[in-house]
Each structure stands twice: as C-alpha cells, then as structure tokens.
Write a structure and sequence with these properties.
Largest sheet: 6 strands, mixed
Order of helices and strands: EHEHEEHEEHEHEHEEEHEHH
Strand order of the largest sheet: 2-1-3-5-6-4
Structural class: alpha/beta
Strand content: 15-25%
Distance between the termini: 20 Å
Number of strands: 12
Shape: globular
Radius of gyration: 19 Å
Helix content: 25-40%
Length: 282
C-alpha cells in the first residue's frame, strides 16, 4: 500500500489491484496533478483483491474521493458495484476507471480502448486494411474493440487452444470486427500484417524476434517492463514503428485524469516523461 495522509478539503484518487506494487499509475497521475497545479489532489495505490473490493468501494466518501483506477483482477469484478457503466466498458465487460459523483453514485468506464486508439493516432495510424493480435486475454478484447474502429478488413488472432479461439471469435462478433483465429504455433505469420498488437505476457513472444520481416508494418506491444521486449527491439532494428505499454498507459491515464478531476488540458508529455524516468531507473 502506498498512501499519503491527505488533509481536510483534499481530493483523492487511487489505483487498486493485486498485485499493485509495480503500477506506474501513481507516477503518471501525480505528474499530471503537479503540472496542472492541482495541489490539493492525492493519488495512491492499494493492494485490493476481488474479495476486498466491495468493502473498499463501500467505504469511499464522495466528499473526499473523486475516483479509482482499476487493474487486474478487478476490471470485471467491479461492475456489479456500479450505478452506471459506459457503452465502451460494457462492450468488453471491463471497467478500468471509476468516477464518484458528489451524490455518491459510481460510474464505470474503460479508457484502455480510446487510449489504444489515441496512441495509434499519435503515430499517424488511423486506418489499417488488416491486423493481427497475439494472445487472447483481457487486453486482447480491448485491442479488438479498438481495431473494430480502424481496421477495414480482417483481424487474425493467434491463440493457444480451441477454447480461446472460440472466445476471440465471439468477441469479434460482439464488437463488430471480423476475427479469424490461428494457432499460436503459426504466430510468425502475424508479423507480415500492417499492424500487430502483442498482448502476451513477458517473454511469450520473444521467439518471434528472429522472424520480423525486412519491411515491417507497425507493432504495438502492450508490455512496458521489461522494455524493450525482444520483439520490439528486433522490430525497431528493422525500422518499423513500435508502440509500447507506456504509450497505452499514458494515453489511458490522460483520460482518467480528465474524468477524475473534471479538467481538460491534461499534460501527456509530462506524464510520459515521468513514466520514462521511472522505467529508465530500473
């Protein structure tokens, strides 16, 4: 648990999850508050699992608390505790942002999906004819939701086993994107696509580094530590554009700060610099 001792009249937000010690969210949000001159704002982190979540949420005082950021395993577990949920969050059954109204009502949103789109847009990627997704976890469904908005053709998901393949096809149907599934053993074929989104755990895609094509498209690898991944390093060496987990984290955090504070003009560059400083020190 990482907390400060707020004084009366301050506003609070925090990231919850388990494990949570690795989270960069406090670094990013605090950098935003500092750059925006929000001196009375505090952002902490709390180790909270699914069993402890209802009690934690019930104890929030709306006069003090503005909102929460949620990481695994809480993005789905929080939904029954909310009064409202955005269409974006409902589309993937995952909430990573909670806003507390002054009346105590709890609203849930998902900033991962627009964060993915904003990160791609920052690199000039606003439309692709086809794409590939590596993996089939929670981040993969958010990736499909984002790709549904910019991919004009088919998305191929490379996964392990028929159950995950069926799940990804179901997500595609639900999200309005055509999903074809392929076996993880054939994942090298994914690297020929104009956009590859890697959502796999650390090390899982390292073996693909030697298969990066001569002229690769764009790679979005959602990991940020360790960075660069073997795949990202090989991709960059070939001259292809590479986006990483920090790009996603910063862009989705900008949206969270906007929702929690009610202020626009959130300083993306200051947040990214703070995140890079921490990652560079590891």
């Amino acid at each position: 648990m990482d907390t400060t001792a707020p004084t009366p009249g301050t506003r609070r937000a925090a990231v919850l999850g388990s494990p949570i010690a690795h989270s960069l969210s406090p670094v990013l949000h605090r950098a935003a508050y500092a750059a925006m001159g929000l001196d009375g704002w505090h952002y902490d982190r709390f180790e909270v699992d699914e069993a402890a979540l209802p009690g934690f949420v019930a104890g929030l005082d709306p006069a003090e608390w503005a909102g929460l950021s949620l990481t695994m395993p809480l993005k789905r577990a929080v939904i029954p505790l909310l009064d409202t949920i955005s269409d974006t969050a409902a589309s993937v059954e995952a909430v990573n942002t909670v806003v507390l109204g002054k009346d105590g009502r709890l609203g849930g949103d998902n900033t991962d999906i627009p964060g993915l789109l904003a990160a791609l847009r920052e690199r000039g990627i606003t439309s692709v004819p086809s794409a590939a997704v590596l993996g089939a976890g929670a981040t993969a469904s958010s990736a499909l939701a984002a790709l549904a908005r910019i991919c004009t053709g088919e998305v191929t998901a490379y996964v392990r086993g028929p159950a995950r393949a069926a799940e990804m096809r179901q997500w595609g149907t639900r999200l309005g994107v055509t999903v074809r599934t392929a076996d993880w053993a054939d994942a090298e074929r994914a690297l020929a696509e104009p956009l590859v989104v890697a959502t796999t755990p650390a090390g899982a895609a390292d073996h693909l580094a030697g298969a990066v094509p001569e002229r690769p498209g764009a790679l979005f690898d959602v990991l940020y530590h360790p960075w660069p991944t073997a795949l990202a390093a090989a991709w960059a060496a070939r001259g292809g554009p590479v986006l990483g987990g920090l790009d996603l984290l910063v862009h989705q955090a900008v949206l969270q700060v906007e929702q929690h504070t009610g202020h626009g003009g959130v300083p993306l560059d200051a947040m990214r610099a703070a995140g890079e400083a921490v990652l560079g020190a590891h």
